[in-house]
Design a protein that fits this description.
Order of helices and strands: HHHHHHHHHHHHHHHH
Radius of gyration: 24 Å
Strand content: under 5%
Oligomer: single chain
Structural class: mainly alpha
Helix content: over 70%
Shape: elongated
Number of helices: 16
Length: 329
């Protein structure tokens, strides 16, 4: 940590000083890797990652390191699990600094082999960390087939473990939900559905939203809600059952005064969105457009605008459905 702070400070003064410092310690650090000094290998990769992030070094030394991380699958076996996070950090910096190197199908194939190995080891968080970096620094549509093929394996594992191993189902499903949410925001709806079309598409989105409860961290949950709001306001022809499923989760999370309106629509059971008859007239006679409080400057808050747009879509569709329910009853 002291070295990291030191390097960042001298980088602010002169990047050349960082390079001089790296040259003075490179041989010693390389010796640590060559001799597999396990207590220090993780720190060594952290140092190299930090150095690459502060410089434009593309020397043979770092190319060889990258090749070893990518192509030596023994680096990703169970005995090396303590190195997975430093390896992934090193991959991230290289993706960020030199994305053109990764615009190669053989490199992409190798990365998905690593993901497959991590999947076998149930290192789900690390898998989606790598995939997250891929869709952030590269164009995912260029390797959409690879993503689809790998996600098919993930979905198969989910299905197999849904009843037999809830722990694996929840852990893997939560990571998949978060990743797909990021894809929706980055790629928009049509491209995301194209990638997901052979593994469930909209039905997969409906199933995964139940796992919002096990996602860790407020910001991650917020990202999922935002992406689903984005999905229903920008995607055409969403089947009503799917819209209803999404609504059960989203409708109570929309901010500000909409929470008051949402209480009318809360489902009394898991199968039905019908509501008490005494609320019927309130809903039918109400203006279903969401009223935005005066103190909310929505024009300057794109995220909040998205929530309120989604609220209006949900309310209008639910109103139609609820009227039909009451008539049929």
């Amino acid at each position: 940590e002291i070295i990291s702070l030191f390097m960042k400070k001298i980088a602010e003064l002169d990047v050349k000083l960082v390079s001089q410092f790296e040259e003075s310690v490179r041989n010693d650090l390389t010796t640590i890797l060559t001799n597999s000094i396990t207590d220090l290998m993780g720190y060594t990769f952290q140092f190299f990652s930090l150095y690459l992030s502060l410089s434009n070094d593309n020397s043979e030394h770092y190319n060889k390191l990258l090749q070893s991380v990518l192509f030596d699958l023994n680096s990703w076996n169970i005995n090396m699990i303590y190195m997975f996070n430093p390896f992934i950090a090193f991959l991230k910096v290289n993706l960020m600094k030199n994305p053109s190197f990764f615009n190669n199908q053989s490199i992409i194939d190798q990365i998905f082999k690593i993901c497959q190995q991590l999947h076998n080891l149930k290192c789900f968080k690390q898998i989606f960390e790598i995939l997250d970096y891929l869709i952030n620094f590269l164009n995912p549509l260029q390797f959409a087939n690879s993503i689809t093929s790998f996600l098919a394996i993930v979905v198969k594992t989910l299905t197999e473990n849904k009843k037999s191993n809830p722990k694996v189902y929840h852990e893997l499903g939560a990571e998949l939900l978060l990743f797909i949410s990021k894809m929706i925001i980055k790629l928009k709806c049509e491209s995301t559905l194209q990638i997901l079309s052979s593994i469930g598409g909209m039905n997969l989105l409906a199933e995964l939203i139940d796992l919002i409860l096990v996602i860790q961290g407020f910001n991650n949950k917020k990202l999922v809600y935002y992406s689903y709001c984005f999905f229903i306001t920008s995607c055409n022809n969403i089947p009503l059952p799917l819209l209803n499923t999404i609504a059960k989760w989203l409708i109570m999370e929309l901010p500000c005064s909409f929470k008051m309106t949402a209480s009318l629509f809360r489902s009394k059971d898991n199968e039905d969105i019908s509501y008490a008859a005494r609320n019927y007239n309130k809903v039918i006679n109400a203006d279903v457009k969401v009223q935005i409080p005066d103190y909310v400057n929505i024009e300057k808050n794109e995220e909040l605008q998205m929530f309120f747009n989604a609220a209006s879509v949900l309310l209008n569709n639910l109103k139609i459905n609820l009227v039909n329910n009451v008539k049929s009853e």
